[in-house]
Write a structure and sequence with these properties.
By secondary structure, this protein is of the alpha/beta class. The protein is built from 21 helices and 15 strands. Strand 9, helix 12 and strand 10 form a beta-alpha-beta unit. Helix 17 packs across helix 19. It binds pyridoxal-5'-phosphate.
Length: 501
């Protein structure tokens, strides 16, 4: 199998090359050049497999230039018991058997959000890919983060031989817990730097560094090469396909589903990465009826699915589900490529319109295909808070605000369509990680007044009987190791200094 670019103008690449490059040379995203199919018989055989076993099977179908042994050496450390706190890795919890409602818990990794599933394995895939392609430079991973990705990438890349990682976060734009998660990061190859500005400043700064030829050549002479750990890299998307299969097969093995029975997935969405992985799982033959896309007040994707018009010309809102505050969903490009019959010319034109005017409209046939597979609605902050509260009152089950956006949209979907198929809501973060909104939603504003996020961790543990996740416990007692803060204009100079040492 080879990987081709969604813009249609790049030479086919092996999976190792695609993972190493991250983005295709023509500015597009790499996608597999042929569909991968799993038959009903194969699916039945896979039921009951461990997460690691299933990950091996599915990765092998796409990473055809990797040997079985190479894949094992990537999968085994990534999903080990020392990394994921739940023995199932991605446990499926029944919430309401009568309605067939289940939650897929994707937050048992070291940083308590689903990004660990990709970022625990990406460093292994990337370092293998380097060896396979004869690359002998050290990889310097640059990350701009609004909170969750930075910490997940740091945990994934810390002390991985042949790599260094530099994370830029908005100095005043992340939560207390998110900041401490990053500035207390251990590891000999990690750098965490505050940017005096917002996320856009950090993101633009990183983009400029990637495009800075002089700097690229200079660090090349010092034996380094930049790479990216964000979700445009196929190596970040592929591992996420696994847990959709795992969830379905778990219910199948427990007898909750009949062979071939169709279900729905509800996915809280920002950059369209997580739900795109669900789309690939469906394409492979997983019996999925609808993919329900849940958005917050930044509902550019909900409008797109309803109208076929993508329009980012709208206000940007800061919400209580901050990891979904995004107006340019870069992975949508892959979906459009697949649904237009791999029409790179069309995709190029739409993406150029998006860049120039902030808006494009897909043709009627493509829009019809999108509507056949996807359904979408959005939740404002008030509705999100209500969903946290109702879910706790009704089921005694605590969810974070991102998952709550999904739960709200699940209810809307049932109301609007009358569809009674069994449904799995993807839970993307631990309620402990976004504890302020969670405590306020369930116990009222009085309960949070005057309390730090650390006091709230204790409060939540006491109220629910759950234990504080290991990654968040004692964070305020760990030494701060990273104190550097820079102006956006000094980001490139800082990277130069770090890498020339
Ligand atoms: C990143 C993130 C999302 C959005 O995922 P996408 O792949 O960008 O759609 C949702 N919830 C949480 C907690 C996240 O960290």
């Amino acid at each position: 199998m080879f990987y081709e670019s969604t813009r249609g103008k790049a030479a086919p690449a092996t999976s190792a090359e695609a993972i190493k490059m991250g983005i295709a040379p023509d500015g597009g995203l790499f996608v597999p050049d042929r569909p991968v199919k799993i038959s009903r018989e194969q699916l039945a055989e896979m039921a009951g497999r461990s997460y690691r076993h299933l990950a091996r099977d599915i990765l092998q179908l796409y990473l055809t230039d990797f040997s079985a042994e190479e894949i094992v050496t990537c999968v085994t450390p990534a999903y080990g018991a020392d990394r994921f706190a739940d023995p199932a890795v991605a446990p499926v919890r029944p919430l309401d058997r009568g309605r067939g409602l289940h939650v897929l818990e994707l937050f048992h990794g070291p940083t308590c959000a689903f990004k660990d599933f990709a970022l625990q394995i990406l460093p292994h895939l990337l370092t293998r890919a380097m060896v396979k392609t004869g690359e002998n430079k050290e990889i310097a991973i640059l990350v701009a983060t609004s909170g969750d990705t930075g910490k997940a990438a740091l945990e994934g890349f810390k002390d991985v031989p042949g790599t260094r990682i530099i994370v830029f976060y908005p100095a005043e734009g992340v939560s207390e817990i998110q900041k401490l998660q990053m500035v207390t990061q251990e590891g000999g190859n990690v750098h965490v730097i505050g940017v005096r500005g917002n996320f856009d400043h950090a993101q633009n700064g990183v983009k400029e560094i990637f495009g800075n030829r002089a700097l690229n050549e200079e660090i090349g002479r010092a034996g380094c090469r930049f790479s990216s750990a964000n979700s445009i890299n196929w190596g970040r998307l592929l591992p996420q396909i696994v847990y959709y299969f795992f969830a379905y097969l778990d219910l199948l093995a427990k007898g909750e589903l009949a062979a071939g029975e169709e279900i729905n997935f509800v996915v809280p969405t920002g950059n369209f990465g997580n739900i795109l992985a669900a789309f690939y799982a469906r394409r492979m033959g997983l019996p999925v009826h609808r993919l329900v896309l849940a958005a917050n007040r930044n509902n550019v994707l909900t409008d797109f699915i309803r109208t076929g018009i993508y329009d980012r010309n709208r206000p940007f809102y800061k919400t209580i589900s901050p990891s979904m505050d995004i107006l340019i969903s870069s992975n949508l490009e892959r979906l459009l490529f697949e649904l237009t019959g791999r029409d790179g010319t069309k995709i190029t034109a739409w993406m150029e319109e998006l860049k120039a005017k902030g808006r494009y409209r897909v043709d009627a046939a493509t829009h019809a295909k999108i509507r056949e597979i996807f359904w979408s609605d959005a939740a404002g902050d008030t509705e999100t808070m209500a969903a946290v509260r109702h879910t706790y009152q009704q089921y005694g089950y605590l969810i974070d605000p991102h998952t709550a956006v999904g739960m709200h949209v699940y209810e809307r979907y049932r109301e609007a369509t009358g569809d009674r198929r069994k449904t799995i809501v993807a839970s993307t973060a631990s309620p402990f990680k976004f504890n302020q909104s969670v405590v306020q939603a369930v116990w009222g504003p009085e309960a949070v007044r005057g309390k730090s996020e650390f006091a709230l961790l204790e409060f939540l543990a006491q109220k629910t009987g759950l234990s504080i996740p290991p990654g968040l416990r004692d964070l305020n007692k760990k030494p701060v190791r990273h104190t550097l803060a820079v102006e956006p204009a000094d980001m490139a100079g800082t990277v130069r200094k770090i890498l020339s040492r």
